Fold:
Amino acid sequence: MSATAQKTAPMPGDIRAMKGGTPIVSLTAYTTPMARMMDAHCDFALVGDSVGMVLHGLPSTLGVTMEMMVMHGRAVSRGLSRAMMVVDMPFGSYEESTAHAFRNAAHLMAETGAAAVKLEGGRHMADTIAFLVARGVPVMAHVGLTPQSLNTLGGYKVQGRGDAAEALVADARAVDEAGAFAVVLEKITAPLADRITAEIAAPTIGIGASPGCDGQILVVDDMLGMFTDFRPKFVKRYAQLGQTGEAAIAAYAEDVRARRFPASEHLFAEKAPGA
Ligand code: KIV
Structure:
């Protein structure tokens, strides 16, 4: 059963129980209208820190703040009634110490109503994940390409190829054993994603990974084709909203300049006396 077939929003345990069953469906969400659009179709919506690049035009996710995550988390929660909401912990909000991570995770959950948080990192984050889970914070882990480590990874490269595979398997095992209820696998080879999916207890959520993952996630603006100049290999475009939107704006501009808009049907007349 998909988690969205339930009457109430799924909990992290329900998502975990979907391991090996019907694939888990998820997308990122940053606003109320977008959350409304996906609510009936997704098992969970992720308020990803990709919001910084997608909506705020930042060059990476490194400049995303707790305040931004709270603001977008609140907006998304207003659009969801069936899908679960997970909120990303931004760069700098969880790495320093377990206590710091707990304070910020609790703040995100309290302020947004999120059922869980997501954080990036493998073996080095296992203690933090175990600390949060033991204190009531469900954690979605994220290994492989972890965009917050862009500067140490040397860019947005495919991870885990060749000799690097064993380290990535060790990362996935560590976050699984630490109690993560699901693990995002980003931009790794398909055979490696399949191996990790077979070896860990938590469901894997792939992005640029494999159809064999227990679920999939995409950045919603990417799959809707909002950007005309950004086409990552792992994204399938289900619409061309960027092109359609630009054509609509061009048509509006022409209408305004030609005084075709507003037309009579858009105008208000005086009410007839006595009407
Ligand atoms: O922030 C984000 O959008 C993400 C997904 C790509 C998994 O972390």
DSSP finds eleven helices and eight strands in the chain. The two ends are 57 Å apart (CA to CA). Residues 224-261 form one domain.
